[in-house]
Amino acid sequence: MVTIYLYPFGASFIKLSTRLRRSAIVQLQDASGRVLPAGSEVKFEGVEYPSYVIDFGEVCFEGLPASTTLNVTMAEEFCETAIEFPPTDDLQPTLGPSTCS
Question: Residue 59: which CATH number?
């Protein structure tokens, strides 16, 4: 958290650090080709916190490994899908659609 105090007729300069991390948007669908419902929980091995499906069956990941299995929980149902994250120059590629069964 950064607290900024502004002074009348003054100038403020803020130096914020940034870091580039590998990220991707993964499109998920069920065996019928329908997008997974928003709010479905998605995890993969080695991640402490889950991600969640948003509109259009998409889920955004940071720190995604080159290949992994996504585990999806939708209400009382469970499915999984394997994904490959190929090398790319795109800062946030869209992968899929990937079928979860």
Answer: 2.60.40.2070
* pTM, entire model: 0.76
> Is residue 6 included in any domain, yes or no?
no
* pLDDT tens profile 55-73: 999 999 888 888 999 999 9
Distances (CA, A) of 79 to 5, 10, 31, 38: 49, 56, 10, 15
Question: Mean pLDDT in the chain?
Answer: 87
- Whether 55 maps to a domain, the answer reads yes
**Distance between CA atoms of 52 and 45, rounded to whole angstroms?**
15
Token pair recorded at residue 92: 């946030």
- Distant-in-sequence contacts of 87-93, Cβ < 8 A, 24+ apart: 91/20, 91/23, 92/23, 92/24, 92/25, 92/60, 93/24, 93/25
Domain count for the chain = 1
Q: Are 83 and 70 in contact (CB under 8 A)?
A: yes
Residue 37 lies in a domain: yes
